[in-house]
Amino acid sequence: MARILPEEIDTYSEQHTSELDGTLHALAQVTRESMKYHHMQVGKVEGAFLRMLARLTNARQILEIGTFTGYSALCLSEGMQDGGRLITCDVDPEATAIAQDHWARSPHGSKIELRLGPALETIATLEGSWDLVFIDADKQNYINYWEAVLPKVRQGGLLVADNVLWSGRVVNPQKESDFAVDRFNKHVAADPRVEAVLLTVRDGITLAWKK
């Protein structure tokens, strides 16, 4: 992921952001040391932002699409009400093993339930309504994920999508992944079922409130 903001601005933002669950520091280090694509991990600023969204929505039911090593799930769970449930979907047993190891060390990890397998298949089995959905998985399926989860989000619930600026490549798409993210952004902006804003947090985050 290419840097969008100057490094000194990113550093300043981190320095003036509230701390997260201490387990996350160890998780970030293990991810950097053991995962080839460690930059996929949500960082401190975005993690704190996700925690705050969970708190502001009083979320008791959260769905995450794309677990990686579990940083974002732990941030979201930290912001959830006691007794809340977070289901996170992924297909990578190696990355999610790191996630589960660190969730077990956190007082918030008991709120998290991992579902291994294709996310669209998992979503099809889920019942009930969701307060918050976080999409951070393969970009080619972003529209498919959106269409699968939106009917399951409660009215007034929140959908959050990560990497929607795609290192700035959405401005001048060249590769299929660039076009996929751009198509998703256009899809959300034109969707009458939500009110959306695309924010320049880290690699771009879309917030969409379901009408």
Q: Please, how many helices?
A: 8
CATH topology label: Rossmann fold
Per DSSP E runs of 2 or more residues, the count of β-strands stands at 7
Q: CATH homologous superfamily, by name? A: Vaccinia Virus protein VP39
Name of the CATH class: Alpha Beta
Low-pLDDT residue spans: none
Residue fraction in strands: 15-25%
Helix and strand sequence = HHHEHEHEHEHEHEE
Give a short account of the largest sheet: 7 strands, mixed
Structural category is alpha/beta
> Level of helix content?
25-40%
How far apart the termini lie comes to: 32 Å
Tell me the CATH architecture: 3-Layer(aba) Sandwich
Query: Strand sequence of the main sheet, in spatial order?
Result: 3-2-1-4-5-7-6
Using only CA atoms, what is the Rg?
A: 16 Å
Please describe the topology of this protein.
Layout: H1 7-15, H2 23-34, H3 44-56, E1 61-65, H4 71-79, E2 85-90, H5 93-103, E3 112-116, H6 119-125, E4 130-135, H7 142-149, E5 153-162, H8 176-189, E6 194-199, E7 205-210
Description:
With 211 residues, the chain is of the alpha/beta class. It has a single domain, classed as 3-Layer(aba) Sandwich (Rossmann fold). It is 39% helix and 21% strand. It has eight helices and seven strands. Strand 1 (61-65), helix 4 (71-79) and strand 2 form a beta-alpha-beta unit. The longest helix is centred in the last third of the chain and has 14 residues, at 176-189. It starts with 6 loop residues before the first helix and ends with a strand. The model has no long low-confidence stretch (mean pLDDT 95).
